[in-house]
Amino acid sequence: MSNNDSKLLVAVDDGYAQTKLYTILPDGTEVKQVRRSSIRTGKQGIGSINGDGFVGLYEVDGVGFTVSELIESEDTKFDGFHTSVLDRVLVNHALVEADLSKFDIDLWTGLPVADFFRDGKKDEAKIALKRENLLKTVKAGGPDVIIPKIGNVNVGCQAVSAWVDFALDNDLNVRDDIDGAVAIIDIGGRTTDIATVMNGGASVDHQRSGTDNIGMLDVYAGLSHGIARKFDVRGNLPLSDLAKAMRNPEKTIKLWGKPRDISDIVDAVLEEFEGKLKRAIEVVIGNGASIDNVVFVGGGSALFTGLLKSFPHNGEIVPDPEFANARGLHKFARHKALLASQGE
Ligand SMILES: Nc1ncnc2c1ncn2[C@@H]1O[C@H](COP(=O)(O)OP(=O)(O)OP(=O)(O)O)[C@@H](O)[C@H]1O
Ligand SMILES: [Mg+2]
Predict the structure, then answer these.
(1) Is the shortest distance between the CB of 273 and ligand 1 below 6 Å?
(2) Whole-angstrom distance, CA of residue 108 vs CA of residue 176
(3) Residue 18 CB–ligand 1 contact under 6 Å
(4) How remote is the CA of residue 327 from the centroid of ligand 2, in Å?
(5) What is the three-class DSSP state of 83?
(6) Domain 7-157+323-341: which CATH class?
(7) Deepest in the core among 161, 209, 284, 311, taking most CB within 10 A?
(8) 192-219 confidence digits (pLDDT tens)
(9) How far apart are the C-alpha atoms of 170 and 94, rounded to whole Å?
(10) Strand runs (DSSP E) across 61-159, as ranges?
């Protein structure tokens, strides 16, 4: 599809931990935006206290919401998150932050494997629920918030979208090694999603696909626990500090004004969760012997590189893994439009 001044194809991978937006503007500029899925009920008014970072204020049915990296989020790890008001506000906030108000948005978004499929078939009811939720309006709750119009909502399957990202390059050329079984392992915030895609995308092997509730948010909880024990910290550490410490090559966290070495705790937690993930993956795809490619995506895959040792013959991590689903949704939509324009 060629974007024009009014309609714009935008993919939003609305995860439990992070909201990732991917689009290509009419002038060809690629936009990639990632934010923690950090939201609270109520208008928190931190914008006036702390000038850095955009604070989005919204209203739905008279209830206020604040979206900001500066606040400690409400827990997003509940089953109905993907069809909830919290999700709707987070998705709208991503569009606002990307400054897309002059476009009519053709939105592509996703559901985890276990939500998208039910008994081996698309769960049309769940998909419809997600569409309807995102088509409902969110009101701006502050003067600097201009909400883009969402004209249409499409829902794909998250891990299958990552397969599309793996299978198609940026110019939508298809790889020549995807005729067999490709297992996508998406290590996210709440979930590890596995989808085994067969025959060049013609089918999903449901016996070798599924969703496990293990993800980076559990890793942060383990880290927080370890830090509390070692340094006698009482009360919760902010998620943003824990996530930052995990990404920090020095593996330090600031406590009582000074950076403290937490590398031993990070190593122990990663080892524990790597073991858990390895067992969870093996339950679904064994040791991958009958699979041609085992492809790791999602933010967690950047940290659990040790898992590749379990798949020495066929494992790989995609570049920029946290954007795989969003980029894949965008490529899928473009590919579909291309086929339609060719009358296929
Ligand atoms: N390079 C990296 N190093 C360390 N952590 C990272 C890196 N990239 C991403 N992460 C972390 O990985 C976690 C999972 O990110 P991701 O965006 O895949 O989760 P999600 O899609 O929101 O979760 P889910 O798929 O369960 O809904 C996040 O907490 C993020 O901060
Ligand atoms: Mg995800």
Answers:
(1) no
(2) 26
(3) yes
(4) 12
(5) helix
(6) alpha beta
(7) 161
(8) 999 999 999 999 999 999 999 999 999 9
(9) 23
(10) 63-67, 104-111, 117-118, 121-122, 139-140, 149-157
Beta-sheet pairing, 293-297 with 252-255: unpaired
Which residues fall inside 5 Å of ion ligand 2, going by CB?
15, 188
Q: How far apart are the first and last CA of the chain?
A: 14
Among all chains, which residue has been given the structure tokens 């476009």? 103
Q: Rounded CA gap, 270 and 208, in Å?
A: 25
Three-state DSSP at 105 gives strand
Does residue 299 contact residue 215 with C-beta atoms inside 8 Å? Answer: no
Number of H helices, E strands in the chain: 8, 19
Cα-to-centroid distance, 200 and ligand 1 (Å): 27
pLDDT at 51 over 60: no
Instruction: Name the residue of 277, 322, 323 to mutate for ligand 1: max ligand atoms within 8 A of Cβ.
Output: 322
The domain ranges of the chain are: 7-157+323-341
- Which of 141-145, 231-235, 296-300 is predicted least confidently? 141-145
Specify the pTM. 0.94
